[in-house]
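S.,

As promised, the flavin-adenine dinucleotide run. Input:
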Amino acid sequence: MSRFDAIVVGAGPAGSTAARELAASGARVLVLDRAEFPRYKACGGGIPLRTERLLPFPIDSVVEDSVSLLDVAFRGRQRFVRDSGAPFAHMVMRERFDALLLDQAQRAGAEFRPGTTVRGLEIDGKVCVVAEGFEADASHLVCADGAHSPVGKMAGLGAGIAECAAWEVEVQAPAAQLGSYRSTALIDLGYNPWGYAWVFPKRSVLSIGIVLPPGQAGTMKDRVAAYLDRLGLAAAPVEIARGHKIRFRRGGEPIANHTAVLVGDSAGLADEFTEEGIYYAIESGRIAARNVLRSLSGVAPLTTYQRDIDREVMPELRAARLISFMFYGMLRRAPRPWMLASSKFPYLWDAFFAVQKGESTYAREAARVPILPGLAARMLREQ
Ligand SMILES: Cc1cc2nc3c(=O)[nH]c(=O)nc-3n(C[C@H](O)[C@H](O)[C@H](O)COP(=O)(O)OP(=O)(O)OC[C@H]3O[C@@H](n4cnc5c(N)ncnc54)[C@H](O)[C@@H]3O)c2cc1C
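Predicted complex:
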């Protein structure tokens, strides 16, 4: 008999959530991560309010700031600010946020082994996970190993998932400048064919970064340096600078078999409008736990996880993709009028705030605009 019901590889938001929900239901769970925790993860740390609603515990202890203002610019010009009236997202440092989620998984009964890089899998009805000087087996495997997903690949899953790249720096801004960014998320548009730079406020640093299509990954460092210069922060000390992939599942790419499932970035569950993934990491961790429990009790095979993701998560990711093609398509065709229109008409950003707060969904907002699929398809062809 397997020692564990499930081994979870990766203790990011997806893995810790799956582990917590499994352990809370009485499953024997082992979480492995190659890193010692707390660990840094390249990330803006923007957590839409709707994410908090997925968690059965408060996250206040790790919230650095909450933003209600969205400051939008096009290459530093045509700047406008929209006020959501109340916070639409929290800002966290990932090392503290992820450590909180992992702590909750351990409190629920999950066992954690840090500093353990999984290098091999033997799958034969059950799964044996092989790391240096360590082996463990379980009846189920949850691959929560992030966008590179080496373990997902070993399980034969995740082929064909699209990707892009992002680069983040954490900057020690002078106190006055730091203060001027309070409660505000700054987005700078104007990258071709799509992409944006951001400034997200934290308690003692600013997270500044850029997300671009994969072919432009090599330009990210220089573009962030140019953005820092434009913000008057070229001389500010940079605490950390790092890039990482983000993956996008667009169709039926395989994310489950009878033994293993992919969750979070490993499954490409990030949206193509904001490039956020934490919400979907937590959501897919919950769906994975539900399906592992069903499989453990013999109610349904583990492969039903993919069906549930297709039903519960993919409509939202597809809608975000349509909105993204429409938004960036208009921006490329007519940047000045489109910026002017989005600054004058509240609909777009009000809908965005409603999604972030969990009061609406991308799918619902996209359905309100029946011409969107056709428009987005046209923009895509003209890209
Ligand atoms: C620069 C940047 C900015 C971003 N900003 C935001 C944002 O503001 N808001 C947002 O919602 N999303 C953002 N994202 C996306 C977000 O970071 C991811 O969607 C999220 O981290 C996914 O969580 P996860 O649990 O799936 O994977 P991860 O958080 O990447 O965790 C994967 C874990 O797996 C471990 N691991 C990997 N391989 C192995 C192995 N072989 N053995 C053992 N352990 C292994 C890693 O050490 C890691 O701890 C950003 C991404 C980038 C790159």
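Residues 4-43+94-161+249-312 form a domain with the FAD/NAD(P)-binding domain fold (CATH 3.50.50.60). The pocket of flavin-adenine dinucleotide is lined by residues 9-15, 32-35, 39, 41-46, 117-118, 144-146, 150-151, 166, 168, 209, 244, 246, 264-266, 270, 276-279, 281 (CB under 6 Å).

- D.
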